[in-house]
Amino acid sequence: MTTLYNPFSLIGKTILITGATSGIGRATAIECSKMGARVIITGRKEKSLDDTFKHLKGHSHLKYIADLNQDEEVVELCMNLPEINGLVHSAGIVKTLPFKFINRTDLNTIFNLNFMVPVLLSQKLIKAKKLKKESSIVFLSSIEGPIIAHIGNSMYSASKGAISSIIKSMALELATKRIRVNSILPGMIETPLIESEAITKEQLEEEMQKYPLKRYGKPEEIAHAVIYLLSDASSWITGTNLVIDGGFTLT
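The chain above was modelled as a monomer; its predicted structure follows.
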């Protein structure tokens, strides 16, 4: 029987995905398992993580309950992990607040989870030699910050802008290890992250009309791009911010 050629296959690869309890992280974990990867998922909420785990296809997957804001839990996670071929940073938070009301506490909270946690987790895994050569690191950034801006989103925008900047230096420094580093910049995606008391359904509907395709993206559509960056199909891509926004930034 002839095996179909598929450069996007993840068979034989072990992938760690943070923030796998919901949204893009959950979708990425499930889609990666469908592509043959051995998936390792982590998140803070045990019940939600268990639910994601039940939907993974195949066998030999692992799950770790961990609060990545806690250094000791990050260290424990790194110690327990097997060697991996891919790392997907999907955990993140957003808080809408006009610039004149931002404060150090909120800035620290958002920057810690959106920037410090994924960057330092990557560093710890590299130092612990958990990332194999030819590995791929994928950050979930956003068009919000690196490309566009909205009123009240300055803290989130700044954290995502920082991610889109640091991947370039990481890509250069890790190239000697053949480890690639890229980020994905999604537009608005239908996840719990867009649900906010500060944004009404009417406002979301109005914003949707600004997209040429007249809809928001689906988590699976971002997951498929992540799979591309994890796979051998993207073996000559590093230091890139990949925009996936339904054409929003064209308008």
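The two ends are 49 Å apart (CA to CA).
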